[in-house]
């Protein structure tokens, strides 16, 4: 399946009766003109992270079928989601980089996670299938720093002694937009490579030393799929649904692991979630024999005192429904549902939102 068609064909995505729009990896959204209510309910408008777009799409379609109410979600990257909620142009923002407590307090925002997933490294190498190539954090950092430029570099062949790696230039593909997927990726590289931490750092958008920029997980997936010798990073659902080749990674315990819901769950096993800190837990580079090294939760931002309390209450009803009904859908798309005790704590924390009576 071609990566550019994955959001449509792979998910059967429809929101508000309109098709999602994708043009060369540009923002993906459901467009419905005015935010009209359906069946007497308030329309829900959100924008932000592309990382959870597959599951939000699936949830939205099922929610509309069951309730008649609609979600208009623009998949524009975490940076755009943070900006739009701060500018109050959407009911909720979505980000994979949790905001710090002081930032939440400054803007009067409440933050909570929805699902857990993982970044994966994807490659386009002749003769290499998913799980056949292994990388570690230092080699990955050096590739994205531009210090490893060929696929048969000694640092890669040492990790893959049985692989026939070509004498082929590495084509680096990275996000061009502000992205929580980028934050998870660069935060991981900062933890395993002092050189990366010093030269580049961790953020939703960084000054990339090398590479081709593409917009959204969709754009990166599309560029890697079209370019022989390419390497990039995307959320796992995009790699899986688009049929891209992903690598194994050496984790903190020194084990080569493949991306899966089990390895994402292992990374989150010891996590501590604190409502007073906006549930802003990072799951990168966690210990554990089976832990995937680039895991992360994705988060929603709403105002505690929204200008439109009814619309915000409708958004919370949607996520309340998703917590109760969406676990199987999340698992099918390789996301990890949140533990029941965490969702109960999140729902209790919603009492701080004006207009929420659930």
Q: What is the H level of CATH, i.e. the homologous superfamily of the largest domain? A: Periplasmic binding protein-like II
- What is the percent of helical residues? 25-40%
**Count of runs of 4 or more consecutive helical residues:** 14
> How many beta-strand elements?
17
Molecular shape? elongated
CATH topology of the largest domain: D-Maltodextrin-Binding Protein, domain 2
Q: Which spans of ≥5 residues are poorly predicted at pLDDT below 50?
A: 1-40
Oligomer: single chain
Number of domains: 2
CATH architecture of the largest domain: 3-Layer(aba) Sandwich
Q: How much β-strand is present in the residues?
A: 15-25%
CATH class type of the largest domain: Alpha Beta
Estimated radius of gyration: 20 Å
Q: How would you describe this structure to a colleague?
A:
The protein has 358 residues and is of the alpha/beta class. It folds into two domains: 3-117 and 275-282 and 293-352, D-Maltodextrin-Binding Protein, domain 2; 119-260, Periplasmic binding protein-like II (D-Maltodextrin-Binding Protein, domain 2), CATH 3.40.190. Helices cover 36% and strands 21% of the residues. It is built from 14 helices and 17 strands. The chain has helices spanning 6-10, 53-67, 78-86, 101-107, 137-144, 154-159, 180-192, 194-199, 216-226, 236-242, 261-268, 309-325, 327-332, 340-349, and strands spanning 14-15, 18-21, 28-30, 44-48, 71-75, 92-95, 109-123, 134-135, 171-175, 212-214, 230-235, 245-246, 248-250, 256-257, 283-284, 294-303, 336-337. Strands 1, 2, 3, 4, 5, 6, 7, 9, 10, 11, 12, 15, 16 and 17 form a 14-stranded mixed sheet that branches. Strand 13 (248-250) and strand 14 (256-257) form a beta hairpin. The longest helix has 17 residues, at 309-325. The N and C termini lie far apart (41 Å). Residues 1-40 have low confidence and may be disordered.
